Amino acid sequence: MAEYLIKNGFVFDPVLGIKGDKADVAIKDGKIVETTALSSPKVIDAAEKTVMAGGVDIHAHVAGPKVNIGRNFRPEDKLFTYKPKNGIERMQGGFSVPTTIRTGYNYARMGYTTVMEAAMPPLYARHVHEEIRDTPILDQGAYPVFGNNWFVLEYLKNHEIENTAAYIAWLLRVTKGYAVKVVNPGGTEAWGWGLNCENVHDPVPYFDITPAQIIKGLIEANEYLGLPHSMHMHANNLGNPGNYTTTLDTFKLSEGIKPNSKFGRDQVMHHTHVQFHSYGGDSWANVDSRTKEIMDYVNSHDNITIDMGQVTLDETTTMTADGPFEHHLTELNHLKWANTDVELETGSGVVPYVYSPDIKVCAIQWAIGLELALLAKDSMRIYLTTDHPNAGPFIRYPRIMKWLMSQEAREQQIDAFKHKDKVIDATNIAGIDRELDLYEIAQMTRAGPAKSLGLAHMYGSLVPGLEADVAVYDFNPNEPYVPDEIENAFSSVRYLFKTGVQVINDRQADPLGEREGQREPAGDA
Amino acid sequence: MNAKVNENPQVMRDVKEKFLRYYTVTLNNYEVSGHYLPNPYVIEVDATQ
Ligand SMILES: [Zn+2]
Q: In this complex, do B1 and A129 lie within 8 Å of one another by their Cβ atoms?
């Protein structure tokens, strides 16, 4: 395989502690190596540019049956978004629910190289893996859902941790899954009876167990097994005003439990898309931000990691195993609704949604997501996500970086809100002047998620020995810039290497990458 | 993930029973076989005690 030397870039690597210093990165045989290990490398000039490890997405919905339902029942998502085959790039389509091909390409364009599918129904695991196979460039894993599974409910009713762990081990093996995902524990099962579980002590009908017992039991089973990632939590009561207390009650279930994993993570619970779980008030009329309460807890408890679930103010397609939530949403917006029960295991719903800057609640949600990251004391424990496509499509990550890095960009957006004053009253965003730097962005998008996933031995850094996933951006952090330059640079990586294969060269797909890329999908090209 | 655990006859019995009584697919038709993963990467943990 070719050798590369990426010379003179401004490197941001939280694992190595490099904060924008000029450094060279060497690639050989698919791995990062010491520069002295190269014999005759191809030199990539990264002068005046930003160099980071490939991005790692800890939570997105990009493969499998509910994504495909979104594609099928939203032909309007594909209107005007098709791009014909161009050179080595294949036909691509879709915006909020792109085709597998576009999913791989668009992540690569942002410099991302690893993406986790966050909810795999075990019964339909095959479909998830088929789509992963058809997604170019990326390394991917998938989390089977466990929180409404009849085996788990029956074992944990009697606190049978060893049996739960044995079942998890079996299911991970047969579905080729990566981690233990929990969605609205008990609530999706209750939805099979038209009911829900709105707090952690709400009993699950016919099973004589509470969400709290399910959550705690699954954390214990996860640690019994010593899995690389912790239990991955989507709590009860998502998207409802006043739900921050449910979120705090959920966090507290992790107290006193220590990680048992040789993979280097410190947390026993990863709570996803916390934006959707940080609401005060008791109706949509008085909903407000409770990020201070949420982040006070997260900042003072290091056995938890979270991700944002940032609203991007786009038209998108929501999809989740939280069946009752999707019903609630379709009752709110009266758009079309798809709903599925997966026998014995889980459920799912899909509803289109428009996050409009003219709607007060959407603007409050936008502020809440950003506040979580801006109030975080440790950017290694909060990760940039949109719960793609639920709060917005993943292609907006560079825009979110802009909002996080620039108070000016946030003020521009706040000024554009129709209900600006009400939004400011209901949130903390206007009073926050913190601007994240690229080191913190690298923590939130590389080193942090890789560590939380237990994959820091492969991804998230440029330490010799790791996979040679390297992104070079046209961004000079030492020159003055306007906010939009952040978004532009991080939307279109200059050079991208995946496992040592150059897949993007001068912002274009690299023909050599197509020929040599060992992670190209099988089938006809 | 390949997590090794102690033999657990109860769980395997429960799995067989659920497939017999409730699932609309058979156990044999449930597992994702290797050819669905052309580029697999297996992480192993040993939780046998
Ligand atoms: Zn999700």
A: no
CB B46 within 8 A of CB B2: no
Residue ending a domain, among A452, A469, A496, is: A452
Is 0.90 topped by the overall pTM?
yes
ipTM surpassing 0.90: yes
**pLDDT, position A79:** 86
8 Å CB contact of B41 and A225: no
Query: Which residue from B minimizes the CA distance to A179?
Result: B1
DSSP codes, A241-293: TTTHHHHHHHHHTTTTPPP--TT----SEEE--GGGG-B-SSSTTT--B-HHH
Sign of CA dihedral A55, A60, A65, A67: negative
Shared-domain flag, residues A336 and A471? no
- CA A447–ligand 1 middle distance (angstroms): 21
Measured distance CA(A153)–CA(A207) in Å, rounded = 7
Considering the domain architecture, whether residues A10 and A144 belong to the same structural domain is answered as no
Q: Cβ–Cβ of A173/B3 closer than 8 Å?
A: yes
Quote the ligand 1 centre to A8 CA distance (angstroms): 38
DSSP bridge partners of A504: A496, A509
CB pairs under 8 A between A and B: 86
Same structural domain for residues A372 and A408?
yes
> How many angstroms does the Cα of residue A118 sit away from the middle of ligand 1?
6
Are A68 and A122 members of one domain?
yes
Q: What pLDDT does residue A523 have? A: 36
Q: At what angle do helices A407-416 and A397-405 cross, to 10 degrees?
A: 110
Last residue of a domain, one of A408, A431, A452: A452
- Identify the domain containing residue A375 by its residue range: 55-452
pLDDT recorded at residue A519: 42
Identity of the residue in A154, A173, A519 whose CB atom sits nearest the CB atom of B39: A519
The pLDDT value recorded for residue A342 is 87
**Does residue A361 share a domain with residue A248?**
yes
Residue A133 Cα, gap to closest chain B Cα (Å): 7
The answer to whether B45 contacts A225, with C-beta atoms less than 8 Å apart, is: yes
On whether residue A522 sits in a domain, the answer given is no
Grouping H, G, I as helix, E, B as strand and the rest as coil, residue A88 is coil
pLDDT of res. A453:
98
Same domain (yes/no): A36, A66: no
- Identify whether A449 is preceded by a cis peptide bond (ω within 30 of 0): no
Is A38 found in the same domain as A116?
no
How many domains are contained in chain A?
2
Q: Please, what are the averages of pLDDT over each run of 10 residues along chain A (525 residues)?
A: 95 98 98 97 97 98 94 90 89 94 97 97 96 96 92 95 97 97 87 84 89 97 98 95 97 97 97 98 96 98 98 94 90 90 88 95 98 98 97 98 98 98 98 98 98 98 98 96 96 97 89 47 36
Q: In terms of CA atoms, which chain B residue is nearest residue A124?
A: B30
Per the domain annotation, does A519 fall within a domain? no
Same domain, A87 and A98: yes
Q: Which residue of A has its CA nearest to B17?
A: A151
